[in-house]
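hey so i finally got around to running the thing on that chain from the lab meeting. sorry it took forever, my laptop kept dying and i had to restart like 3 times. anyway pasting the input first so we r on the same page abt which one it is
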Amino acid sequence: KRFMATFAESSLLETTKLILRKDQHRFFLKGSKLLRDGWIEFYRPYGSEPDQKLPDLRVGEKVPIKKIDAVEKFTEPPSRYNPNSLLRKMEDENLGTKATRAEIIEILYRRGYIKDVRIQATPVAAKIISILDRYCPMITSSVFTSRLETQMEEIRSGNATRREILANTLDCLRPIILHLISKEEALGTQLAEASAIQRKSNATFDYPCPSCGSKLTIIRSRASGKRFIGCAGYEKGCRFTLPLPQFGSLTITGKNCKVCGFQLITTRSGRWKHLTSCPRCYSNKHKGIAHVNDVNKPIRISSSASSSLLESAPLIEDQ
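ok and heres what got predicted. didnt touch it at all, straight out
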């Protein structure tokens, strides 16, 4: 359908706007009428029909008022960026190049500066920006970065020489670097504190250990190098563990599994591939245990029943 619609003629849409007056108040109505189907004929039933017909009224005609409702509405905040919309924003701001923009976003995910598909800045990212804004605001300015990208384009197009651009860039960066060197100790201390907090936050679950109630953390085995979920109450005798994927970067999400209530994790591998899953449901599926509603009361079931129950449950959400 999309292929055929691409080669079809344009559709023709007539739009109408009605203005109704009552004393000093004005009310607006907008409608549309499809005069020629064009590509829409091939694309149905996908997409919404553009027809929103209005009654046939003439200028100056009076209409009866049946009901007036007062509706209170509030301005909603703009939606969060996702990787695709952030990529478009970088293009609009002239940040990076076509070859580097996607990789920049992936690096931000990998280093723990942003998280989730609906992108949120992590506490360490906010802390770093706050520190740099205090000591060197030019580094965090998109205008400065965009200007550098423009100068690189001038070199590629032959409108400027590399030596000239390099000299201008060094003139801009020299006072910045000297200022950072003078604040090196204070800057390093604050960045180290932010990094330590981030590492601990990235590896700690909000969901408590089902066995003893202690904190659950992501641990990497010194012997095998494999990562898994372990309990902070290990020294007190708790041996609760859960397996983890051994590929890609892991992010602990703020969402909980609909089946067992455990905290979900997101595994990222490659630029845009990510998989959100529940470690506990994954483990229970292989052990033949189902945790439904009450996470403290495991129900052991047969392997055949386990297959039918757990495979139908939303254990893994591929976004």
